[in-house]
């Protein structure tokens, strides 16, 4: 333990790293945020002052060591400061998903017993006020945006800047205390607590220590040679471990600059203005951007379209190879260079990826076509596999060894083993301390030797040593005839079509598989516009015969591809339906990080699943929906059930027996 | 009746000031048609004042009288304690009265930002040529105006369409841009002509929120015309009801709601 602390130069907490950065990179930009149309900048020295003022304000307010300080809002420098200020006084920051409903928030705040909260605006404050009678321990709420807050009772409510002013005014008085608390922090103290959204059950509070965060950040920075001149765009939820590692762990370790967008809606514009060099995103963002490029290309002139397709075909052929440093002929290189001037360069610039040196996608499997598209443009996009419990990194793809179907080799200092059932276990310095107030789950997930069960099934590929993920271990099942049922595998293939947003496969214990499909409104809406198909609602579009026909084509194509895999050929989709509503986190059908909660969906739409199996051609259903403000309503629909062609499977049972 | 100079405090604790504008016995005729007949009412500082009435009641005409577009044949308009002489609309605007229109009047080909910037025109003192050269005072002026405009854009949450041409926006957002342009003028009185017309429920809720926030944050006096009774009753401090060019009711939403003449005008009268 002392050894690793020495490896990081005695810098054993985030506040200690802040002090170092303020000295070493004092005049370098640490934070930027677009406000009033202009990028506002804070250097490391200025950021240190802001954080100090806030930390002193916290002391003035009575924040004690070990207290939990909840953070709720979109990515803004103020929230990052609040987290580090909380750490500076010995408290533990707990970022929560700002879009979660009042009840979810009440659960999290109640579970950790947060005494303080830093919230963004009236909307967040109102949510807490709604459930305040469940939260006796919550004493003070600090808000950033004063708009609409004047009429509120300010006994327990404080404006962010006022807390800072009070902190500055009381500097003399509290500075010795702040210094003492800051210096006390060591590698084993809690750095942050993050609630995992969890595809099953209540959220669990994952406790990560300074060691977890700093060691993981350090290793990953060295792996990708990140340095203080890098730029990132912080736009992913602050409650997600990835954002904490990138925007705090790695930013503080290397001293690079964190840029915050003006608002969630302006993210794409802001991305382009900043041109990050290090970029991270779930596949969904890449998919959306690709879809929008393709939609816009359809509006371009004939010549431009021709040029685009001509050069994209060339990029597909050699782009990835050039990026991986593999041998490519001179003519091909010259053509690629020309394409870079004419197409790839401008396109990358439009997408905001003109300067990306290292890009990652994680969280879900990315479609090979989407992945190849970005790589062929010369964007060094890679995959990684991680978890909150691991402080993100389990496996990563090294430069030059990037493929769409694997998640890479073990990250530095990470050991991996696969048990006889195929489940992946890992052990690393990033392994979490515990689930807060939940020793049972902790014991279930982490054994005495520090091995953590991922809950995912996978295997190491022979020869390359790359890890391949098959599915969630608990989702993998058996069909009635004993063949393997791996829903994710088929769902991912379906989701790679731009007009399919989400797919859910059923079939565990049955004799064949059926599927629910969610259409992608932006892609299909655009298609409808082009083909003069009028529609009044999502529901109407989802039930349109032409939409069903095109989805059917996709399903059958997937069936053909699934049939090629001898292990999984039983997972072909025999029947499917297009859902009348989008699966939504507000309805509990998905997690806040947008992963499908399979069990919830199966239970809620049980009537639809049964109808798919009993062979009926139509089903009427009524579904409860929750609106963003928590009100409930219901929608009725009659759905058409479609049959899809399957490829007859050439079972070799006889031979096997 | 309330005193001219003294204000009152609303239920939710807002302080309403003295009378800022008063319409005295206004009559407006178009040839032989009497659009407004002998109407008097006042608007107090900081309040949200609604003018309601069935179709053709003369509401928009009334708003046009306030904004100086129509000149009544009889009656007087008093503003800030002084009788207002016959004015052109731009002169009225210079006095700090800004408005939005029932059927959106924006420059469709221009970006949202440019549209909102036009709301600052009366604050610009440099001439066309100075602005074209964009040197010295003209530059400084633009920077200041842009700052005000950006605050409005932030306030109404339209950052994401800042550079989008207005013609490409959906209806609800256009309405919001129009409000932004009016707000950019930093008016003391804001006139809204059917701000929610043609909106869906969600857009109406957003717009109501913004109107309340404008009033609360900047203390802007707001006079609005609206069809949607629910919206009017929730938003306004006091309501004037018109029917066939005449005033048939004036008072708090509750008073107006229980006024028999108003009920008759809206629901119709049964004839034996």
UniProtKB/TrEMBL annotation, chain A:
<dbReference type="InterPro" id="IPR042099">
    <property type="entry name" value="ANL_N_sf"/>
</dbReference>
<dbReference type="InterPro" id="IPR000873">
    <property type="entry name" value="AMP-dep_synth/lig_dom"/>
</dbReference>
<feature type="domain" description="AMP-dependent synthetase/ligase">
    <location>
        <begin position="18"/>
        <end position="436"/>
    </location>
</feature>
<keyword id="KW-0067">ATP-binding</keyword>
<dbReference type="Pfam" id="PF23562">
    <property type="entry name" value="AMP-binding_C_3"/>
</dbReference>
<keyword id="KW-0547">Nucleotide-binding</keyword>
<dbReference type="GO" id="GO:0016020">
    <property type="term" value="C:membrane"/>
</dbReference>
<dbReference type="GO" id="GO:0005524">
    <property type="term" value="F:ATP binding"/>
</dbReference>
<dbReference type="Pfam" id="PF00501">
    <property type="entry name" value="AMP-binding"/>
</dbReference>
<dbReference type="InterPro" id="IPR020845">
    <property type="entry name" value="AMP-binding_CS"/>
</dbReference>
<dbReference type="GO" id="GO:0004467">
    <property type="term" value="F:long-chain fatty acid-CoA ligase activity"/>
</dbReference>
<protein>
    <submittedName>
        <fullName>Long-chain acyl-CoA synthetase</fullName>
    </submittedName>
</protein>
UniProtKB/TrEMBL annotation, chain B:
<protein>
    <submittedName>
        <fullName>Amino acid/amide ABC transporter ATP-binding protein 1, HAAT family</fullName>
    </submittedName>
</protein>
<keyword id="KW-0813">Transport</keyword>
<dbReference type="GO" id="GO:0005886">
    <property type="term" value="C:plasma membrane"/>
</dbReference>
<dbReference type="InterPro" id="IPR051120">
    <property type="entry name" value="ABC_AA/LPS_Transport"/>
</dbReference>
<keyword id="KW-0547">Nucleotide-binding</keyword>
<dbReference type="InterPro" id="IPR003439">
    <property type="entry name" value="ABC_transporter-like_ATP-bd"/>
</dbReference>
<dbReference type="InterPro" id="IPR027417">
    <property type="entry name" value="P-loop_NTPase"/>
</dbReference>
<dbReference type="GO" id="GO:0005524">
    <property type="term" value="F:ATP binding"/>
</dbReference>
<feature type="domain" description="ABC transporter">
    <location>
        <begin position="21"/>
        <end position="269"/>
    </location>
</feature>
<keyword id="KW-0067">ATP-binding</keyword>
<dbReference type="GO" id="GO:0016887">
    <property type="term" value="F:ATP hydrolysis activity"/>
</dbReference>
<dbReference type="Pfam" id="PF12399">
    <property type="entry name" value="BCA_ABC_TP_C"/>
</dbReference>
<dbReference type="Pfam" id="PF00005">
    <property type="entry name" value="ABC_tran"/>
</dbReference>
<dbReference type="InterPro" id="IPR032823">
    <property type="entry name" value="BCA_ABC_TP_C"/>
</dbReference>
<dbReference type="InterPro" id="IPR003593">
    <property type="entry name" value="AAA+_ATPase"/>
</dbReference>
């Amino acid at each position: 333990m002392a050894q690793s602390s020495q490896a990081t130069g005695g810098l054993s907490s985030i506040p200690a790293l802040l002090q170092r950065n303020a000295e070493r990179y004092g005049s370098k930009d640490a934070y930027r945020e677009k406000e009033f149309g202009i990028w506002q900048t804070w250097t490391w020295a200025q950021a240190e002052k802001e954080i100090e003022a806030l930390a002193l304000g916290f002391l003035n307010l009575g924040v004690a060591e070990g207290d939990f300080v909840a953070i709720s809002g979109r990515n803004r420098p103020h929230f990052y400061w609040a987290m580090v200020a909380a750490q500076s006084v010995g408290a533990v920051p707990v970022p929560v998903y700002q879009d979660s409903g009042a009840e979810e928030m009440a659960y999290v705040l109640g579970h950790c017993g947060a005494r303080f909260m830093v919230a963004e605006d009236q909307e967040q404050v109102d949510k807490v006020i709604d459930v305040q009678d469940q939260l006796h321990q919550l004493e003070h709420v600090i808000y950033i945006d004063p708009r609409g807050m004047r009429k509120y009772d300010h006994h327990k409510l404080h404006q962010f800047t006022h807390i800072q002013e009070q902190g500055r005014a009381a500097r003399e008085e509290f500075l010795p205390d702040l210094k003492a608390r800051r210096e006390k922090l060591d590698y084993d103290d809690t750095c942050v607590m993050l609630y995992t959204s969890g595809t099953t059950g209540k959220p669990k509070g994952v406790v990560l220590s300074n060691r977890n965060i700093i060691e993981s950040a350090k290793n990953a920075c060295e792996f990708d040679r990140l340095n203080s001149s890098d730029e990132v765009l912080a736009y992913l939820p602050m409650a997600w471990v990835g954002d904490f590692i990138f925007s705090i762990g790695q930013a503080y370790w290397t001293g690079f600059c964190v840029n915050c967008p003006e608002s969630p809606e302006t993210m794409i514009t802001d991305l382009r203005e900043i041109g990050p060099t290090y970029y991270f995103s779930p596949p969904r963002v890449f998919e959306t951007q690709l879809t929008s490029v393709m939609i816009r290309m359809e509006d371009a002139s004939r010549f431009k379209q021709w040029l685009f397709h001509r050069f994209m075909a060339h990029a597909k052929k050699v782009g990835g190879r050039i990026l991986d440093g593999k041998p490519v002929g001179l003519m091909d290189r010259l053509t690629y260079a020309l394409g870079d001037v004419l197409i790839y360069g401008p396109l990358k610039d439009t997408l905001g990826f003109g300067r990306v040196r290292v890009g990652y996608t994680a969280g879900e499997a990315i479609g090979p076509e989407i992945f190849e598209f970005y790589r062929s443009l010369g964007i060094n996009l890679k995959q990684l596999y991680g978890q909150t419990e691991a402080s993100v990194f389990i496996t990563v793809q090294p430069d030059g060894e990037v493929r769409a179907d694997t998640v890479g080799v073990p990250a530095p200092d990470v050991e991996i083993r696969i048990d006889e059932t195929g489940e992946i276990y890992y052990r690393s310095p990033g392994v979490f301390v515990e689930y807060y107030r939940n020793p049972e789950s902790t014991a279930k997930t982490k054994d005495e030797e520090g091995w953590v069960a991922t809950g995912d099934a996978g295997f190491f590929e022979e020869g390359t040593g790359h890890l391949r993920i098959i599915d969630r271990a608990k989702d993998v099942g058996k069909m009635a005839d004993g063949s393997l049922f791996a829903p994710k595998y088929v769902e991912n293939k379906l989701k790679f079509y731009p007009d399919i947003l989400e797919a859910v496969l059923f079939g565990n214990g049955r004799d064949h598989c059926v599927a629910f499909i969610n259409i992608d409104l932006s892609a299909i809406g655009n298609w409808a516009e082009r083909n003069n198909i009028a529609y009044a609602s999502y529901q109407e579009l989802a039930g349109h015969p032409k939409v069903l026909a095109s989805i059917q084509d996709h399903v059958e194509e997937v069936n053909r591809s699934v049939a090629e895999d001898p292990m999984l050929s039983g997972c072909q989709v025999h029947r499917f339906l297009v859902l009348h509503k989008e699966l939504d986190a507000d309805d509990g059908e998905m997690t806040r990080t947008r992963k499908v909660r399979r069990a919830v969906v199966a239970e809620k739409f049980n009537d639809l699943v049964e109808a798919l199996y009993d062979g009926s051609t139509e089903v009427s259903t009524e579904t409860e929906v929750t609106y963003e403000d928590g009100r409930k309503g219901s929608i009725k629909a009659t759905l058409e059930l479609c049959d899809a062609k399957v490829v007859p499977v050439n079972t070799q049972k006889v031979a096997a027996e | 009746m309330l005193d001219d100079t003294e204000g009152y405090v609303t239920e939710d604790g807002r302080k309403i000031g003295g009378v800022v504008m008063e319409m005295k016995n206004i009559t407006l005729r178009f040839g032989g048609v009497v659009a407004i007949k002998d109407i008097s009412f006042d608007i107090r500082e900081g309040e949200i004042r609604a003018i309601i009435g069935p179709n053709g009641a003369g509401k928009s005409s009334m708003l046009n009288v306030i904004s100086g577009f129509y000149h009544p044949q009889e009656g007087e308009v008093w503003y800030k304690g002084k009788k207002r002489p016959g004015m052109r609309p731009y002169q009225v605007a210079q006095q700090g009265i800004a408005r939005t229109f029932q059927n959106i009047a924006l420059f469709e080909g221009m970006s949202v930002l440019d549209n909102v910037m036009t709301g600052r025109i009366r604050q610009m003192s440099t001439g066309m040529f100075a602005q074209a050269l964009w040197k010295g005072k003209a530059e400084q002026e633009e920077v200041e105006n842009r700052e005000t405009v950006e605050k409005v854009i932030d306030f109404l949450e339209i950052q994401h369409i800042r550079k989008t041409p207005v013609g490409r926006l959906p209806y609800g957002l256009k309405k919001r841009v129009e409000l932004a342009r009016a707000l950019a003028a930093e008016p003391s009185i804001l006139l809204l002509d059917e701000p929610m017309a043609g909106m869906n429920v969600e857009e109406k809720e957003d717009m109501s929120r913004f109107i309340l926030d404008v009033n609360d944050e900047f203390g802007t006096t707001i006079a609005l015309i609206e069809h949607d009774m629910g919206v009017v009753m929730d938003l306004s401090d006091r309501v004037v009801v018109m029917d066939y060019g005449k005033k048939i009711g004036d008072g708090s939403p509750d008073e107006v709601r229980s006024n028999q003449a108003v009920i008759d005008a809206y629901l119709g009268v049964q004839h034996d």
